[in-house]
Amino acid sequence: MSLLVAVTWETQPWVERFTRHLPGREIVVLGEEFDRSKIRYVATWGPKPGSLDNLPNLQAIFSLGAGVDHLMGYPDLPAAPIVRVAQDDLTHRMSEYMVMHSLMYLRDHARFSEAQRAKRWEPDRSPPIASDVRVGIMGFGVLGQDAAAKLKMMGFDVAGWSRTSKSVEGFKVYSGDNGLDEFLARTDILIALIPLTPDTRGILNRSLFKKLAQDGRLGGPVLINAGRGGLQVESDILTCLDDGTLKAATLDVFEKEPLPESSPLWAHPRVTITPHNAAVSEPEATARYIAQQILRHEAGESFENMVDRARGY
Ligand code: NDP
Ligand code: OXD
């Protein structure tokens, strides 16, 4: 059995880990000579057109991340099952990000940083506490639910929104188009952790932001998007920041990545930017997870976290 590592980044860290976690297997990378009929598995992120063609014995395509939108646009994607990353290392990193940025808004970090630079001593005598702040998590899947549990532990008033209705102990979960307006109306911090699909493209737009709570303790709703850049309409975010519909935004993902130098988001005083690293797929943890999936499959068990191609996630 061979595993093909098809990434556009440095391949060596992946090859080293896969070799260690799958002893005795052949690990090959694009650009090398290899027998395509021997390839049983592919581990990939953003494969170049053609790179996954002509693999007649392929048994699974492993996305090197949780999202699979990078695969959905691949022309004639092989019919093998797609398995995505859903493991604790990545999940915990995302929750760290969400808890940190939510706390920074709760504690008005931007205001105190500015006051420090101006050497102003300006304590807030009546700041909100976490339970005064309503967090709404769009996308109540693996990442959304872990972030919800940790934000709740900090005291935030957390609810979720998903495509299908579900019950998750301890949380009110809204669902579908019918539940969206009510969900938004009770949300001060909007966290986006939904996949990019034809249904969700451009969902973070002006008309949605207008429906967020305007009576919250933060002085205006804030957006935290670490889902995908294609979810957001960046010109609408800027308009809404400037007309007060949004108080602030933390963005890890962008319509175009890397974010072009010309983007006005870079310099906006109420925008926090991170370079699509809210939760990285750390090679050791990810290779271990993929190796486990291969071993499960070879022992006759089914893959975990398989993608439904019709849903797009
Ligand atoms: P999951 O598949 O576990 O969860 C996705 C959630 O989104 C589900 O609750 C699903 O609803 C909901 N959803 C999907 N489509 C819709 C829709 N049309 N309307 C409402 N809800 C919808 O995914 P993960 O939690 O593992 O990951 C979520 C996303 O996070 C990834 O797809 C990726 O884009 C992003 N990500 C970003 C990273 C970063 O570093 N910035 C790192 C890792 C992931 P339902 O429960 O009904 O199926
Ligand atoms: C992912 C990502 O989907 O890092 O895992 O964006």
Characterization of the model:
This protein has 313 residues and is α/β, with parallel strands linked by helices. It has 2 domains: 2-87 and 281-298, 3-Layer(aba) Sandwich (Rossmann fold); 88-273, Rossmann fold, CATH 3.40.50. 30% of the residues lie in helices and 17% in strands. The chain contains 9 helices and 12 strands. The strands form 2 sheets. It has a 7-stranded parallel beta sheet. It has a 5-stranded parallel beta sheet with strand order 2-1-3-4-5, covered by helices on one side. Strand 6 (134-138), helix 5 (142-153) and strand 7 (157-162) form a beta-alpha-beta unit. Helix 1 crosses helix 9 (283-298) and helix 3 (88-106) crosses helix 5 (142-153). It is elongated. Oxalic acid is lined by residues 65-67, 85, 281. Residues 65-67, 86, 90, 94, 139-144, 162-164, 166, 193-197, 199-200, 226-228, 252-253, 276-279, 313 line the site of NADPH dihydro-nicotinamide-adenine-dinucleotide phosphate (NDP).
| Strand and helix order | EHEEEHEHHEHEEHEHEHEEH
CATH class of the largest domain: Alpha Beta
What is the total tally of β strands?
A: 12
Structure classification: alpha/beta
- CATH topology heading of the largest domain: Rossmann fold
Please state the overall shape, judged from the principal axes of the Cα atoms.
elongated
Which runs of at least 5 residues are low in confidence (pLDDT < 50)?
none
The residue fraction in helices comes out at: 25-40%
Across the major sheet, the strand order is: 8-7-6-9-10-11-12
Show the helix and strand layout.
Layout: E1 2-7, H1 12-21, E2 26-29, E3 39-45, E4 60-63, H2 69-72, E5 82-83, H3 88-106, H4 109-117, E6 134-138, H5 142-153, E7 157-162, E8 172-175, H6 176-185, E9 189-192, H7 206-209, E10 222-225, H8 234-242, E11 248-251, E12 271-273, H9 283-298
Parallel strand pairs: 1-2, 1-3, 3-4, 4-5, 6-7, 6-9, 7-8, 9-10, 10-11, 11-12
Helix pairs in contact: 1-9, 3-5
The chain binds NADPH dihydro-nicotinamide-adenine-dinucleotide phosphate and oxalic acid (OXD).
